[in-house]
Amino acid sequence: MVHPNNDIIPTVEGLAYGGDYNPEQWPREVWDEDVRLMREAGVNIVSVNIFAWARINPGPGEWDFEQLDAIMDLLADAGIKADLATSTASPPPWFSEAHPETLPVNAEGVRLNSGARAEYCPHAPAFRDAVVEMASRLAERYTGHPALAMWHVGNEYYRSCFCDFAADAFRAWLLERHGSLAGLNDAWGTVFWSQTYTAWSQVLPPRICAETPNPGLVLDWQRFSSDALLKLFRSEADAIAKYSSDKPITTNLMVTGDFSGIDYHRWGDHVTGPNRLVATDHYLIPEHDTDIEWPAQVAFGADASRGLAGGSPWLLMEQAANSSAWRRGYFAKKPGDQLRHSLSYVARGSEGAMYFQWRASRYGAERYHSAMLPHGGEDSKVFREVKEFGAQLKQIAEVKGSRVVARAAVLLDFESSWAAKTPGQPSADMATYPELRRWHAALWRRGVTTDIVNPAWDLSGYEFVFAPHLYLLDSDAHLRDYVEHGGTLVIGPYSGIVDRNDHVRPGLPGAIRDLIGVRVEEFVPIPEGETIALDDGTEGQTWSEAAHALDADVVASFTDYPSTGAIFHRHVGQGEVWYLATRPTDLNPLLDRLGISTDVPEGLELVRRRHEDGRSYLFAINHTEKPQQLQATGKDLLTGKPWTEASILEPGQGVVIRERSEAHKQ
Ligand code: GLA
Known about the structure:
Immunoglobulin-like, Rossmann fold, single chain, 3 domains
């Protein structure tokens, strides 16, 4: 459940601009230079105290807030707001030494050592108590501080632990979910391989074992681990809310990763609505996305974040100005990339743009991570662009609070993506994340603004809904309702196969069979590098199915198996549903069939944000190498000049046009 909220950072004037700020790494005189340069760059908010546990709590029962007080005062004097973190993501070595049981244990049973960060078990009582105490002390001390804009709990939650505390917590979670040991045995199908449990003590986390583990165990473990991190986040958020009830509380999520750790949609209740804010970190990862260009990757990150926020504005909490320390191979962004990427995030609903980090560190694991102020100093491409974007954000501040207009949705279900990765699948290549990326990118190339949302949420406003891979689906009722009321739904293969316990439904494809009017006889995976031909001249890859129409039109068949269909179409109520029994190598022919226009040249990014009172803004970014014309009239807020039908968007240029007419549709 998500709660709409258009005013996510009421305490910051205009759009947010800044980054992680770690002045504890620098001598005092550098702080003054920081503040001078921040003001020059238009920075109005920084995230502080993210990794400062060792500084403010240097030993058991020792507290020292002098430096943090000075940092907060410095910011307040400079008119810069603080996104104040609780510093709980990195317990210092003294803590791990005093409480060795709080160090995480991996699936092999190895207890990890201190020496890096995030060295904690989310279930260890001493750690849980410590973070609540930390959050309470900080909230009590800084609640009325003039620099305080919002609270930042932890940092990038992802840690899981396989220790005995975890095992106990897992059993309690399982009891609540399945009601009894008998319920658990049933849900996990433990009769298979004689895995039946006769006492709770026999139930363990999916620690490394002799052979393929029970998929039900693996799936429930992921759900449990996600819930445990939510519980940890909530324990700090609740502690803060006791002292500070008027400032947003957030944490930097990684909504756009490969969907591996957290079911962010289950976090919805706790990161949306009044005094909550969806904030995401997004780092571009070229090695994972060789065939999908960066602007499309930016759009995917933004559209998934906005999806989580239920269409409300959200905040880009971290991005990299240039290279990231953790990726293979250092790289430099091309001139202007940083500006275009940042503008695209804002176009897609972010209420500003923030970075990791303000000033590049001289030491530590991330000393070669890029920053707003690089080692190269002020006289650098990066800092010049940082200043330029700071100025741009001021020029477009009036977009704050407006919402993005999206025509289509791509469905993302974290549980389903986890289930599709459980062991023993017919094809290891039927992963959800890359397929969603591919569909989203195909729509991006056609200029279609797309929300990435949960299948159970309200879909009624979308003209098109794409479900590239919904392997786990309990019921088709919600999707059917969308279609019956006039929607167009496209469902990819290997969908609707299992229920919430990962039990295969006989009568494939289980949950969607009646909706699509298609029967699947068997799966025929396609080896990597090979394709399967369709009789409409297109090809499929990765997967195919021997599928037969029960009550659907066969639009295309596999040439080698003419008796079975490959693409199906069916009218349902006022809408229509398409089913694909393979993953098309090229998604364009299908988009053509759907009538999704190609008027927008590929690489011309067009996104509209609109206020409730009708004021409308067209963000246009020309990622192509050719000048482009836009069908828009109004005023470009970035240049302050009128925009007419004859105006030209130069290669690499971005504009934000306050539109003259209020009745724009995409
Ligand atoms: C994450 C973390 C930051 C930093 C950056 C580097 O986003 O939150 O502390 O490590 O990655 O890319």
